[in-house]
Amino acid sequence: MQRIPAGLVLALFLPAALLVALPAHAASCAWSAKMEEDEGGSVMMASVCGGPKGDANLMLACFDRPVLSYDLGAAGGQLEPGIRGSFTFKAGGKSVTKKLVLEAMYNYFTTDLSGPADPLLALLRGKGEVRVSADKYGEVSFPLAGSSAAIGTVLAECGKGSDREAD
């Protein structure tokens, strides 16, 4: 019986293993919309993961108005409550800059959007990917495939009320 050189096995096996592993990771970072539990009850949430490890997240919920949340993932570490940052969202040759405030309980940044016609929502409903950057926190990209449907599902819930208690 003839032995196959170890280098040849690695040269053939490693690329095949990477091709199997990479699409699984990419598929897990797709936009979705589903009911999730929040401190005040159930809320419709659209979300997507991104970044090199898939641990950063963009999330959209709608209470009286749409609220966008950005979780930096492991890159964010433990941040100081109340800090603010200016974040630029770029997609399709356009960019929108928003001031986000750290939500201490969850350790992610949030911003209230003006409504369904907010320029950031229009940008997020595009194609390709969105890059989110801030000088202090670097840049993370998120896929936009499926974003329009997921965001539309959340926006359809805006103003309908929920089982959340009033603040």
Question: For the record, what CATH class applies?
Answer: Mainly Beta
Gyration radius (Cα, Å) is 19 Å
Q: Please give the count of helices.
A: 3
Q: How many domains?
A: 1
Q: Tally of extended strands?
A: 9
General form:
globular
- From the helix content, strand content and strand pairing, which structural class follows? alpha+beta
Q: Strand order within the widest sheet? A: 1-2-3-4-7-6-5-8-9
Task: Throw out a few tags for this protein.
single chain; 167 residues; alpha+beta; Immunoglobulin-like; 9-stranded antiparallel β-sheet; globular; disordered N terminus; disordered C terminus; signal
Describe this structure in words.
It contains 3 helices and 9 strands; from the N terminus they run H-E-E-E-E-E-E-E-H-E-E-H. The protein has 167 residues and is α+β, with helices and mostly antiparallel strands. The protein has one domain: Invasion associated locus B (IalB) protein (Immunoglobulin-like), CATH 2.60.40.1880. Strands 1-2-3-4-7-6-5-8-9 form a 9-stranded antiparallel beta sheet. 24% of the residues are buried. Residues 3-27 and 162-167 have low confidence and may be disordered.
Offer a concise description of the structure.
This protein is an alpha+beta fold and 167 residues long. The chain has helices spanning 6-28, 119-124, 147-155; strands at 32-38, 41-50, 56-62, 66-71, 84-91, 94-103, 108-112, 129-134, 138-143. Helix content is 23%, strand content 39%.
